[in-house]
Design goal:
44% of the residues lie in helices and 5% in strands. It contains 18 helices and nine strands. A three-stranded antiparallel beta sheet has the order 4-3-5. The protein has a two-stranded antiparallel sheet with strand order 1-2. A hairpin with a 4-residue loop joins β8 and β9. α3 packs antiparallel against α4 and α4 crosses α5. About 22% of the residues have low confidence. Its main location: nucleus.
Length: 502
């Protein structure tokens, strides 16, 4: 339904454009429209017009609901036309179709040259822009007094051929600012989120009104909708309390905590997360902590059972077995990488069966420490105080790449990673030459090694001694790297282990 304004433009001298859409809207220019179903003003909205009824318009909401107003002949199965907004360009990118209609209608009403009144009627353009546009598009047109219809901008083709929009790059927030604002839109001052849980819950009740003419069924329906809305608010409050009580909005703290966890711990937390909503934050942490303790105890029991199946009966035999196993792994790696970290025991170490571990023939003679001699098979392994495994590794590194290329890697063995180049690493000048070689072979950066060294020495100073097992529990990295660092510290005299009987 349309209502006429106080001052309707004259239609005596209207030009008839060839464009059907422009002609149709030109006849309706200056009108305001209201929905025949809910009486809402839809002048500046997309509306649906019945093609069979006279002067009958519906808003999109009433049309989608199939409204059939009383005292009208309209039915929801009638043919219809969608009347879109005229905010798209037809002749000029800077002029919409609605502005074109306002321009020509104002010129017809006020006369050519009264650009002040014309601009006031158009509203969005000044008098100079109106005069320039009419001069360029209408008067200077090859089809004067009609505009050049071949220049009409096709809205669909313009959209399909438009260049892709450039996504603005968001600068990373400074370290001093909380990153949670850009992640989930949390506003700490209001303790609210930019997008709440079930953010559209208010939409279903925003237009509800209780009227005296409501039937009991209508009142019951509206009360049911309010009950649904209250349930949505309860779910929203429950989830907000869950997030805030557990400090999940503190993204940096959560991220640092996740980094400290081992892979098996992360997997366990991920599996048990479904039970978090049934417990408080502290109860959930205690629950998962108990499961982690149980998992570690099971692993320790399985390891001890494996030792028992191999005939190992006390801690002394276990230490000998672990040392021999580590030496065999080192000797095996020398078959295809002579520059790796080496120990004197790896060249001749009696195993549990009484047979010594043979030295790999592929190790060049120059990589052996001159003062180190192989131990006899009948004697137990003795630590060599005059030789250093790092000296052997340093001598091997001085050979260059010729010795490595001369010895092809045996088939079936995976080539180990090459030593890490730490020549430009930060903190290199704080290490001794032997420590630099150790870091290169273990592929550790100097700063990481210094943190490990500081942790081990502090623990040793506090307790007066440090066992290999305690060192592994203290340093959460690869156990082989931890063992080699521990051996290096013992060999350098920085750390000593506890007596076996203690």
């Amino acid at each position: 339904m349309r209502t006429k304004p106080d001052q309707e433009p004259t239609n005596d001298r209207k030009r008839k454009f060839d464009d059907e859409l422009v002609t149709q809207v030109e006849e309706e220019f200056g009108q305001s429209y209201h929905c025949n179903g809910c009486s809402k003003d839809i002048t500046n909205l997309v509306r649906v017009r019945c093609a069979e009824c006279t002067d009958f318009d519906l808003c999109v909401t009433c049309f989608s609901s199939g409204v059939e107003p009383e005292n009208t002949q309209h039915r929801n199965f009638h043919k219809y036309r969608v009347m879109e907004m005229l905010d798209f360009a037809i002749f000029d990118d800077n002029w919409g179709a609605d502005e074109e209609l306002k321009l020509v209608t104002a010129i017809e009403h006020y006369g050519l040259g009264n650009w002040e009144q014309v601009a006031e009627q158009v509203g969005s353009k000044n008098r100079l822009e109106c005069a320039e546009h009419y001069q360029r598009m209408y008067i200077q047109s090859d089809t004067f007094p009609m505009p050049d219809m071949s220049r009409r901008i096709d809205r669909n083709s313009r959209l399909s051929h438009s260049p892709p929009r450039k996504v603005p790059k968001h600068d990373r927030p400074p370290v001093s600012q909380p990153a949670c604002h850009e992640i989930h839109g949390y506003m700490p001052g209001r303790r609210e989120f930019e997008t709440e849980w079930e953010n559209d819950a208010e939409i279903m009740i925003k237009d509800l009104e209780f009227c005296d003419s409501d039937t009991p069924e209508d009142t019951e329906l509206k009360m049911a909708m309010f009950s649904m809305y209250n349930a949505a608010l309860d779910r929203r409050a429950e989830r907000k309390k869950f997030v805030l009580d557990r400090g999940i909005v503190d993204f940096k703290k959560v991220q640092q905590t996740e980094k400290k966890r081992q892979k098996d711990e992360k997997d366990l937390y991920q599996k048990m997360r479904v039970f978090a909503k049934m417990q408080t934050g502290q109860d959930f942490e205690d629950f998962v902590g108990g499961l982690l303790t149980e998992m570690k105890l099971r692993e320790e029991i399985a390891r001890l059972q494996e030792y028992r199946r191999m005939g190992l009966r006390d801690r002394k035999e276990i230490d000998v077995y672990e040392r021999d196993k580590r030496d065999r792994e080192v000797a095996k790696s020398h078959h295809h990488h002579p520059h790796s970290y080496n120990t004197p025991r790896s060249r001749a170490t009696p195993t549990l069966s009484g047979r010594p571990t043979p030295a790999p023939s592929s190790i060049p003679a120059s990589t052996l420490t001159p003062t180190a001699t192989p131990q006899p098979p009948s004697l137990p392994p003795q630590p060599s105080s005059s030789s250093s495994s790092l000296a052997a590794a340093a001598a091997g590194q001085q050979l260059g790449s010729s010795s490595t290329s001369a010895q092809p890697a045996p088939a079936g063995l995976r080539k180990p990673a090459a030593p890490l180049d730490i020549s430009a690493a930060e903190g290199l000048d704080l290490l001794t030459h032997n420590e630099q070689i150790l870091c290169a072979n273990l592929r550790l950066f100097p700063k990481s090694y210094l943190v490990i060294k500081d942790t081990i020495l502090k623990e040793f100073t506090r307790n007066g001694s440090l066992r290999r097992r305690e060192c592994r529990q203290l340093i959460k990295i690869d156990v082989n790297k931890t063992s080699r660092i521990y051996d290096f510290f013992v060999e350098m005299g920085w750390v000593r282990s506890k007596p076996v009987g203690k």
